[in-house]
Design a protein that fits this description.
Number of domains: 2
Bound molecules: 2'-monophosphoadenosine-5'-diphosphate
Distance between the termini: 44 Å
Strand content: 15-25%
Number of helices: 9
Order of helices and strands: EHEHEEHEEHEHEHEEEHEHH
Helix content: 25-40%
Largest sheet: 6 strands, mixed
Radius of gyration: 19 Å
Structural class: alpha/beta
Strand order of the largest sheet: 2-1-3-5-6-4
CATH architecture of the largest domain: 3-Layer(aba) Sandwich
């Protein structure tokens, strides 16, 4: 009897626009790995049954995206240190009979900054938003030894909750601009081309504007930033590198990141 083909999945809600299957299936083929990667939209109430399928080896592993990165945790046997610290899991593996939650968003963010050759050490960072991906970004920024992290969120309570988790951050009121070197948009504003209410003009020095969104590839946040001569980067590299790290965890292979990889994710 031939062994069952390995199968991987990304779960989330919504999930239709996820490009994870495109990327993983491309790498699987390129590396001659006999496996498939699919996407499934779940309701929160379905998470437990879904994760049981990994335990029963009906599914080989999964990625987790918004809004379930925290919700999957109670059903896992073990967390990596980074997943534990951020309370965020985006990759699940089944190792020696245990379901293990990993967070590869952290290394994804870190490698994206390294890839663009931006020297972030000792820089002052202003983060807009306090949603699912922000703990991972803060964890990565601390690892990269930035000098200060300021967080602002429309719902201030969520930013304050983050401060319980990461004592070294400052929380400021939504809508107030801050003196900083790097501005990260980690809100979902921009996914539907909304504009972000932010004064881009009052900062004379050249800043890095980083949008976690990569679809559209140039959000209004990045468009405005460019108009004022700032450097603009979207979240595509972070997305690619979190996938790279998940691929490595599951298959023990480092996939190639080439022009083709970027072309695959050309989505607008
Ligand atoms: P979640 O909050 O469920 O983790 P997310 O997509 O990870 O979802 O995060 C959405 C982020 O975008 C949040 O920081 C959200 O702010 P709130 O916490 O106040 O909801 C932010 N966001 C979404 N729409 C926004 C808007 N119109 N103005 C400002 N911030 C917005």
């Amino acid at each position: 009897m031939s062994a069952q083909m390995k199968n991987y999945v990304v779960i989330g809600n919504p999930i239709a626009h996820s490009l994870s299957p495109d990327l993983h299936n491309y790498w699987l083929k390129e590396n001659n790995i006999d496996a498939v990667y699919d996407k499934i939209k779940l309701e929160k109430s379905e998470i437990k049954d879904f994760i049981n399928k990994i335990k029963n080896q009906k599914i080989s592993g999964c990625n987790v995206t918004v809004p379930f990165k925290k919700d999957v945790i109670p059903f896992l046997d073990k967390l990596s240190e980074e997943a534990k610290k951020t309370q965020s899991v985006n990759t699940i593996t089944f190792e020696n009979g245990l379901l293990v939650g990993h967070n590869t968003d952290i290394v994804g963010f870190q490698k994206s900054i390294q890839f663009i050759n931006y020297s972030i050490k000792n820089k002052k960072i202003f983060i807009l938003g306090a949603g699912g991906v922000v703990p991972s970004i803060i964890f990565a920024l601390n690892k990269m030894e930035v000098s200060k992290i300021i967080v602002s969120n429309r719902t201030e309570k969520k930013a304050k909750d983050l401060k319980d988790q990461f004592k070294n951050i400052d929380v400021v009121e939504w809508g107030r601009s801050q003196e900083c070197d790097v501005i990260i948009n980690a809100t979902s504003l921009g996914l539907n081309n909304e504009t972000i209410d932010f004064d881009f003009s009052n900062n004379l020095n050249n800043k890095l504007f980083y949008d976690v969104i990569y679809n559209p590839s140039e959000s209004n946040f990045l468009k405005e930033a460019k108009k004022f001569g700032h450097r603009a980067e979207n979240g595509k590299l972070m997305f690619i590198y979190q996938a790279f790290e998940a691929f490595r965890l599951w298959h023990n292979v480092e996939p190639n990141i080439t022009k083709e990889t970027f072309k695959l994710l050309k989505n607008d």
